[in-house]
Design a protein that fits this description.
single chain; 217 residues; alpha+beta; 8-stranded antiparallel β-sheet; 7 helices; 8 strands; globular; disordered C terminus
């Protein structure tokens, strides 16, 4: 039975630690992670901050990043492709258990990860391995897929809360009780930023709940 755990790791022990320290207002949300042929991880990361110039200066000096490319620029956020160095110990220790990082967000000096483990035994082994390696993290919640299916949908808290509020306020009614612009204004975000947030949330729900195998073009 698969087990999902939500972990909190200090930024000082994870990726982008210097950037998070130098730009306290920045928020990271991992879109997806690709594997490099040399064993490195290449995440696609959404970045939100009001200080993009300062952020990019800090990112250029961050020792956990070996390369970066900006792929998309929206009103309040940008998508970056990053090459993380292989010395980020928690990543290797966690993925060694044949686990999958479902989502990860970084802000306020820490990273919050939602991880799918094959079973509780794999989670326990990962916890012990990280402790022996001096890696500090807290487990905030654990649930098995057969007992609680919320975690399998790979939604960030922001995506989850926005989708739920959209239902409660009638955004998904036919006809709608409020427009996308009105919904965005109530959340104090731009029309485009809300559209992107909803799109990513819908995609995560569809991929997790409906797509059970490889898709075909």
């Amino acid at each position: 039975m698969g087990t999902i755990a939500e972990l909190t790791i200090p930024a000082a022990e994870f990726a982008l630690r210097d950037t998070l320290a130098d730009v306290p207002s920045v928020e990271f949300e991992i879109e997806r992670v690709a594997a490099h042929g040399e064993g490195r991880l290449i995440p696609f990361v959404w970045v939100r901050t009001a200080e993009f110039e300062t952020f990019e200066e800090a990112l250029a000096e961050d020792p956990t990043v070996d390369g970066v490319e900006c792929l998309s620029e929206l009103d309040a956020e940008r998508l970056y492709r990053m090459d993380w160095v292989d010395s980020i110990h928690p990543v290797g220790a966690i993925l060694e258990a044949d686990s999958t990082i479902l989502s990860a967000t970084g802000t306020d000096g820490q990273w919050r990860l939602r991880i799918l483990f094959p079973d509780r035994g794999a989670l326990s082994e990962t916890y012990d391995r990280c402790r022996r390696a001096g890696i500090d993290f807290d487990v905030s919640s654990i649930y098995d897929l057969e007992g609680n299916r919320r975690g399998q949908y790979s939604l960030t808290k922001e995506q989850h809360d926005t989708l739920v509020e959209g239902v409660e306020r009638g955004y998904y009614n036919v006809p709608r009780d409020l427009t996308l612009g009105e919904f965005a204004e109530s959340l104090d975000v731009s029309h485009q930023a809300l559209s992107e947030r909803l799109r990513r949330g819908h995609r995560n729900l569809i991929e997790s709940a409906l797509i059970t195998g490889p898709t075909e073009e």
